[in-house]
Amino acid sequence: MTVSHIRAALGETLSTPAPVASPIGEPVAHTSYKEFERADQVETGIWECTPGRWNRFVTEQEFCHFIAGSGTFTPTGGEPIAFKAGDAFMMSENTMGVWDIRETVRKTYVIIKR
Fold first, then answer.
1. What is the domain partition of the chain in residue ranges?
2. Does the domain made of 30-112 have the CATH classification 2.60.120.10?
3. Is the entire prediction scored with pTM above 0.90?
């Protein structure tokens, strides 16, 4: 059995920030991450994003817990969902929509691949 302990996720050093693939206007958001575990169709880690808007297509099912920042996610054809530190999302596979990050966001995540 393996146990991955994500300690002090707010202070964890992440990858070099890179611009998002499909930005909408300025500023262009940049993301960084640190993967902790990848096994048996499951991936866990920490992800961070600076302010900006972009189109997102989430191909796998994902659970995420926001530990810093705020913004909205608007699913295609749906209403905006505001979130802030302490909130969590469960997104089904193939979720499409627009992220609008207002304050740099950091989240822990679990991606479930099929």
1. 30-112
2. yes
3. no
